[in-house]
Design goal:
Layout lengths: L1 E5 L3 E2 L4 E9 L8 E8 L6 E7 L4 E3 L7 E6 L4 E7 L4 E10 L3 E5 L3 E5 L2
């Protein structure tokens, strides 16, 4: 499975950030697969933003729920993030799948800078 993030590398303060994760080597509707967005601001730890399950159910970090939207496009095998944020960070899309045990896969990450 390969995950690739795409989207603008620069957004303005308070602008909505939109990122897309394109998945290859496996379907986003694969049973027991959960697709998430995680970010890491410079010098800080990883933060889970939210995700979407194989059935289409969405899950959000309680602290960011009001500013986050995650959706999917099954025809293009993609899932997307929209986040109203003023935080620069590296954004990762990930897959967590259960097949007797849990296995995770990560994209390479994309840096998003916030500047006017």
């Amino acid at each position: 499975v390969r995950l690739q993030e795409s989207g603008p590398g620069l957004v303005k303060p308070s602008q909505t950030l939109s990122l897309t994760c394109t998945v290859s080597g496996g379907s986003i509707t694969t049973s027991y697969a959960y697709w998430s967005w995680i970010r890491q601001p410079p010098g800080k730890g990883l933060e889970w933003l939210g995700g979407i399950g194989y059935s289409g159910d969405t899950y959000y970090s309680p602290s960011l729920k009001s500013r986050t939207s995650i959706s999917r496009d099954t025809s293009n095998n993609q899932f997307s993030l929209q986040l109203r944020s003023d935080d620069a960070a590296v954004y990762y899309c990930t897959k967590l799948v259960y097949g007797g045990s849990w296995t995770d896969y990560w994209g390479q990450g994309t840096l998003v800078t916030v500047s006017s």
